[in-house]
Every structure is written in structure tokens, then in C-alpha cells.
């Protein structure tokens, strides 16, 4: 298992080099001169030449890529062209917020989705099951930003229960987490339901019942663990996607997160920020994937035995 | 049928139906048989004859809905199992009556070590600590021929035959009085079949366990059973001691079954199957459900449901051909 994790971590190196190559090439072939972005359209040719020299924009491709990778290894992505502050500092001022929002949303989705999915599966075709499925379909279909805005109007403006925007106190967290987590909760619920239904009908569940085991133990011990694999996959993918930032939700609630920040950086062609941000998102996504694969191994010994 | 008090199990007029959208599936119909302590009965019949449904009915493990026991009684050790509460039935399952399932590849939980799966049933029914239960599980593994070092392994690390040994260990861990084996060797290689049967026979005799052996293999019946009940379309059409039934089969279906086994001595070119197909349990023939396939069918066979008729000591047949003499 340790060997497997180590190997997977090593395998991240070529992946990340690939990611860096793509980031770099996209910026390289992008039209427009970076020095004009920094200095503005009215800059004199001398000033532009000076910046080009400073940024080594006239060096050959491979040398520029090499120094980009070299700097990235020391977490040095240069300075933001807009604020002139180190990219690393700018990103890490926001990444923890995004991480927190993503983590809480996934936990919310799991806490809602898994129990409701189990209940729905064990009471298949009951009134509860029908209502849960309908609500789930609705929650999955409603766009996050719309749900966010409606909550702002109802709970923020009219009822004044939660603050309408900002980030920092637990009261600030509730609405964004629900807005993002609702659709994931619905997907996880439906996933749990179908996965549980399959497990409940399997032979080993009949064996557990034939042992004289209580129905609750049969469901939560014997069936649930077997049903968790697809649920883990969905939760991991959701978490990974959210680490890139939930742009719309961050915008609605004015959360200083990575998503909104990255969109601004892209629209202002702030190349170092975009490069650093994308690389960080790629690294965290790879780590989440690895985490999911490790979780698989804990859940299912058949998968564990493949990790050699 | 004999209503002997010394019977461990007495099933009378058991009917189990499944109510599904397309109609009612009459899986088990007016089924009767009994079993004494230590005795082994072979429940023989084609696929779809209701053998497994009967077994699950005894265990109260019929999925409901859609399944429902619509009639009859299952008297086990003086108690009607059908009248027990779910909690009372849980105390019976696994400790008094236990079951070995058909497919060892799917009937063990893939995420738990085999040792824990055996210890679980011990913990449920006996007042033991976790450590004692584990020790007991290892003893059981030893009994079924699995080394102690492999106790912590998971089901996927074992072959089919080994997994069925684990299934046997789970079923026998609490010394049940009645063991239901649902085609325990059907999914196994022939060589492994013999080993597993031998093992079951030995362990059963050691504890004087009664057994219901569900099978469609008359060879297994000959090897392991004391009594045989031949099932057709959800009911027992003939029951007798093994020797009596093999030497003196009466019911046309039973005779057909024996005739369909090719004789190795004779140079037979063609198999002799019973004509026709097993009836659809959603639409059983009237009267005797075997009459459309029966060579001896008389006009009244399609109208009158035959009763159990004693033709010899302990030999009952459900066929109108024998009923005149019996009534």
C-alpha cells in the first residue's frame, strides 16, 4: 500500500509536467504582447522593449519553458502583472477559502445524500422514496447560482437570517454551502439509492439475513460498505471540480475564492497568476484523485489487492 | 402424511405465491414433507419446481412484497415458524436452522475477511466475547479444511470450492439442528463436488444435524440422503425412503426422471426426456399439474387435484392412478 501511494505520487510528476507544458504553450501562442498588457496601449516602444527584456520574452521557447518549470519547482511563479505581488501569495490568500467551501459542500452533500439514498433504497416505491426522488431530481436540475440568488432574497434580504455576502463566520458559510451542495447531494442520493438497491438484492445480503442478523446491521454493515464505491467516486469528482472554484457562487456571495479570482486573472491576461492558479488546481485535483483511490482500497479489499 | 411428534420439521399444505404486476406466480403449492432428527431429505426437481422458494420459506427469507406465504404451516421443533415474530425468527436463523447457498462466488460478503463472517454468526447467537468468536471461527475453518493462516483472507482470494467450505463453516458454526443446503455443489467442479459433499456428510453426522438437500442431481441423492421428496410445479409429487423410491418409483414424473438418466451399460443413442416443458407457474394446468406431460393421463386428471396416497410404508404418491385404492 505504501509502495502504491509512493508510486502514484511519482506518477504525478509526468502528469504535472504535461500540465505545465499545456499551460505554457497556451500562453505562448496566445495573441497579444504581455508587455502591452502590463504597460497599457500607450506605452513607448522603449518601455515595451525593457519589459520584454525583463520578462525574457525573446528567449527561445525551450529556455523559457525550462525556466518556468524550474521556478515552479521553487513555487516561484513571478509577480502578478496587475498587483505586482507574488503570485504564490495572491493564490494562497484565496485557496483556503475555496478549499473550505469545497470541503464543506461535499460533506454537506454526503450527509444529506447518503442517508436519504439508503432510506430511499430500503423503502423502494414508498411515498418517501417517490418524494425523495422527485426532490432529488429537482435539486439536481436547479442551477447553483439561481438557488444561491433565491436564498439571498429569502434568507438574506427578507428574513435577514444569514448575511447576504462575505466569508468568515459560520453564518456566512450556510447559504453558499447549501447552494453548491444541493445538486451534489441530489446526485449522491440517487447514486447511493441505485447502488444500495443492487447490493440489497445480492446473495451475500441473503447470507447475512440467514445468519439471523438484524436488518439495520445488514443494511449498514453488509450492504452500505459495498455500495460506497460509486458514491466515493462522485464525491471525489465533485470535490475535485469544486477546488477549481465555484465561480458563480463565489460571485453571488462575494466570497474571496480562487474561482472568481482566476476568471478575473484570465480576463485581464494576468499570465503569471493564471499559470500558478491552473497548476495549483491541477495538483490538488491529482491529490484528490489519489485520495479517492486510497479510499477505494480501504472500502474494498478486492481493489486493495490490485494495488501492488 | 404422517403427523409424527418426533418429527423435527413438519411442513403441511405450504403455499407461497409471488404477486407481481403480470399476475400471480404460484411458486409453491400445497407442499408437504416431514423430517426426523438426524435425517437427510433430498428435495429433487427441475429448475423452477419451487425448491429454493421452499427453503427460503422455511427461513422466512421470502422477499415480501412480492412474495407471501398464503397457506400452510411449518412446524419446527413444536413451533409454527410462520407464527413467529421477526425477532423470534432471527434467533432461529443461523442458530437452529441454517442455510448453505448455491453460488459460493456471490454468497460471501466481498469486503470482510472470511474469519469475521463466521465469527459474526457465533457472536449473534452465543454469549461469547469477540476473541472467543474469532477462535471458534478458526476452529470451524480447520474443520472444513482451511488453514488458520488464511483466516484473515478475503473471499476473492479463495476458489469456489474453498468459498463453499467457508459457507459450510458459517452454516454449521452454531451447531444447527437443521441445515438447508440449496444446491451446494451445482456451481462447483465435479471433483470438488465430491469433496464438499463428503465434508458436509461428515460434519452433519458428527452433530446429528438434519438436512434438507436441494438438488436436481439424483446421484447426490443416492449418495447423501435418507429420504427423497420429488417436487413438480411447487408441490411434492412423491416421497419415500431413498431405497424404496429408487427401486419402486410410482409417480409417472418420477419414473420419467429415472428414465431420462442414460444407462452406461446399454449402448443408448438417444436420451429419453420427459415430453413437454415445465408449466408456467403463473398459469398452472388444472387438476394434476403434471397431466399435460403424463403418458397415463386420464380425463379426470385435468379436473381433480390428486391427494397424497400411501402406496407403501412411508411411500406417498400424489397421482390419481393410485388414489382409487387409497380411498
The rounded distance between the terminal residues' Cα atoms of chain B is 14 Å
Secondary structure tally: strands of chain B: 12
Relative strand content of chain A: under 5%
Query: Rg of chain A, please?
Result: 24 Å
Largest interface, chains and sizes: A-B, 20 and 28 residues
Low-pLDDT runs of chain A: none
Task: Label the overall shape of chain B.
Answer: globular
Roughly how much helix do the residues of chain A carry, as a percent range?
A: over 70%
Question: Looking at the structure, what is the overall shape of chain A?
Answer: flat
Which oligomeric form is depicted?
A: heterodimer
Task: Find the count of extended strands of chain A (DSSP E, 2+ residues).
Answer: 0
Give the strand order of the largest sheet of chain B, numbering strands 1, 2, ... along the chain. 6-7-8-3-9-10-12-11
Determine the number of helices of chain B (DSSP H or I, runs of at least 4 residues): 10
The whole-number mean of residue pLDDT values of chain B reads: 88
Please summarize the sheet with the most strands of chain B.
8 strands, mixed
Estimate the helix proportion of chain B, in percent.
25-40%
Distance between the termini of chain A: 7 Å
N-to-C SSE string of chain A, H for helix and E for strand: HHHHHHHHHHHHHH
**Helix and strand composition category of chain B:** alpha/beta
Q: In sequence order, what are the helices and strands of chain B, one letter per element?
A: EEEHEEHEHHHEHEHEEHHEEH
Topology:
The complex is a heterodimer of chains A (308) and B (327).
Chain A: H1 2-29, H2 34-39, H3 45-54, H4 61-73, H5 87-122, H6 127-141, H7 144-158, H8 170-200, H9 203-210, H10 215-243, H11 247-252, H12 258-267, H13 271-299, H14 301-304
Chain B: E1 9-20, E2 23-35, E3 40-44, H1 51-58, E4 67-76, E5 79-80, H2 86-92, E6 97-100, H3 114-125, H4 130-143, H5 160-172, E7 178-182, H6 190-207, E8 210-215, H7 218-224, E9 227-232, E10 235-241, H8 242-247, H9 252-259, E11 309-312, E12 315-317, H10 320-326
Parallel strand pairs in B: 3-8, 3-9, 6-7, 7-8
Antiparallel strand pairs in B: 1-2, 1-4, 4-5, 9-10, 10-12, 11-12
Amino acid at each position: 500500500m505504501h509502495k502504491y501511494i509512493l508510486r502514484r505520487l511519482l506518477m504525478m510528476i509526468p502528469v504535472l509536467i504535461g500540465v505545465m507544458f499545456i499551460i505554457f504553450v497556451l500562453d505562448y501562442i496566445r495573441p497579444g504582447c504581455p508587455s502591452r498588457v502590463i504597460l497599457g496601449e500607450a506605452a513607448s516602444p522603449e518601455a515595451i522593449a525593457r519589459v520584454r527584456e525583463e520578462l525574457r520574452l525573446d528567449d527561445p521557447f525551450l529556455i523559457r519553458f525550462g525556466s518556468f518549470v524550474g521556478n515552479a519547482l521553487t513555487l516561484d511563479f513571478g509577480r502578478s502583472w496587475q498587483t505586482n505581488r507574488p503570485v504564490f501569495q495572491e493564490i494562497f490568500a484565496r485557496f483556503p477559502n475555496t478549499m473550505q467551501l469545497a470541503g464543506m459542500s461535499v460533506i454537506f452533500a454526503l450527509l444529506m445524500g447518503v442517508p436519504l439514498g439508503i432510506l430511499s433504497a430500503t423503502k423502494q416505491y414508498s411515498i418517501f422514496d417517490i418524494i425523495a426522488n422527485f426532490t432529488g431530481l429537482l435539486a439536481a436540475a436547479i442551477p447553483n447560482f439561481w438557488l444561491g440568488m433565491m436564498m439571498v432574497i429569502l434568507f438574506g434580504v427578507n428574513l435577514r437570517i444569514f448575511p447576504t455576502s462575505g466569508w468568515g463566520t459560520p453564518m456566512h458559510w450556510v447559504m453558499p454551502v447549501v447552494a453548491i451542495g444541493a445538486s451534489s447531494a441530489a446526485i449522491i442520493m440517487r447514486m447511493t439509492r441505485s447502488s444500495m438497491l443492487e447490493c440489497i438484492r445480492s446473495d451475500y445480503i441473503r447470507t447475512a439475513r440467514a445468519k439471523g442478523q438484524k436488518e439495520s446491521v445488514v443494511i449498514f454493515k453488509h450492504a452500505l460498505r459495498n455500495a460506497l464505491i460509486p458514491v466515493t467516486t462522485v464525491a471525489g469528482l465533485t470535490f475535485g471540480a469544486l477546488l477549481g472554484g465555484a465561480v458563480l457562487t463565489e460571485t453571488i456571495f462575494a466570497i474571496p475564492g480562487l474561482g472568481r479570482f482566476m476568471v478575473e486573472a484570465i480576463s485581464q491576461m494576468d499570465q503569471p497568476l493564471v499559470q500558478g492558479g491552473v497548476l495549483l488546481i491541477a495538483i490538488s485535483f491529482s491529490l484528490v484523485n489519489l485520495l479517492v483511490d486510497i479510499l477505494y482500497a480501504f472500502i474494498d479489499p478486492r481493489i486493495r489487492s490490485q494495488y501492488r | 402424511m404422517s403427523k409424527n411428534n418426533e418429527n423435527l420439521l413438519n411442513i403441511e399444505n405450504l403455499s407461497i405465491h409471488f404477486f407481481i404486476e403480470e399476475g400471480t406466480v404460484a411458486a409453491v403449492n400445497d407442499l408437504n414433507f416431514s423430517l426426523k432428527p438426524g435425517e437427510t431429505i433430498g428435495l429433487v426437481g427441475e429448475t423452477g419446481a419451487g425448491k429454493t422458494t421452499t427453503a427460503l420459506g422455511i427461513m422466512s427469507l421470502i422477499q415480501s412484497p412480492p412474495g407471501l406465504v398464503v397457506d400452510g404451516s411449518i412446524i419446527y421443533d413444536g413451533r409454527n415458524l410462520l407464527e413467529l415474530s421477526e425477532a423470534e425468527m432471527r434467533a432461529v436463523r443461523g442458530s437452529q436452522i441454517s442455510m448453505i447457498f448455491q453460488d459460493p462466488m456471490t454468497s460471501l460478503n466481498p469486503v470482510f475477511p472470511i474469519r469475521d463472517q463466521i465469527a459474526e454468526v457465533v457472536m449473534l447467537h452465543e454469549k461469547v466475547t469477540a476473541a472467543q468468536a474469532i477462535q471458534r471461527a478458526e476452529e470451524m475453518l480447520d474443520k472444513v479444511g482451511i488453514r488458520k493462516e488464511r483466516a484473515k483472507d478475503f473471499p476473492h482470494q479463495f476458489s469456489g470450492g474453498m468459498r463453499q467450505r467457508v459457507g459450510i463453516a458459517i452454516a454449521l458454526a452454531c451447531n444447527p439442528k437443521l441445515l438447508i443446503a440449496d444446491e451446494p455443489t451445482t456451481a462447483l467442479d465435479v471433483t470438488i463436488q465430491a469433496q464438499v459433499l463428503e465434508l458436509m456428510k461428515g460434519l452433519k453426522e458428527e452433530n446429528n444435524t438434519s438436512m434438507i438437500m436441494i438438488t436436481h442431481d439424483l446421484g447426490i441423492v443416492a449418495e447423501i440422503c435418507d429420504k427423497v421428496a420429488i417436487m413438480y410445479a411447487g408441490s411434492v409429487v412423491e416421497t419415500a425412503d431413498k431405497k424404496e423410491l429408487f427401486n419402486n418409483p410410482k409417480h409417472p414424473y418420477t419414473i420419467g426422471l429415472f428414465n431420462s438418466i442414460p444407462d452406461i451399460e446399454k449402448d443408448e443413442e438417444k436420451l429419453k426426456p420427459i415430453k413437454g416443458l415445465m408449466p408456467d407457474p403463473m398459469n398452472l394446468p388444472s387438476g394434476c399439474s403434471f397431466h399435460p406431460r403424463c403418458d397415463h393421463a386420464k380425463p379426470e386428471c385435468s379436473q381433480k387435484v390428486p391427494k397424497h396416497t400411501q402406496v407403501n410404508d412411508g411411500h406417498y404418491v400424489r397421482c390419481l392412478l393410485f388414489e382409487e385404492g387409497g380411498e
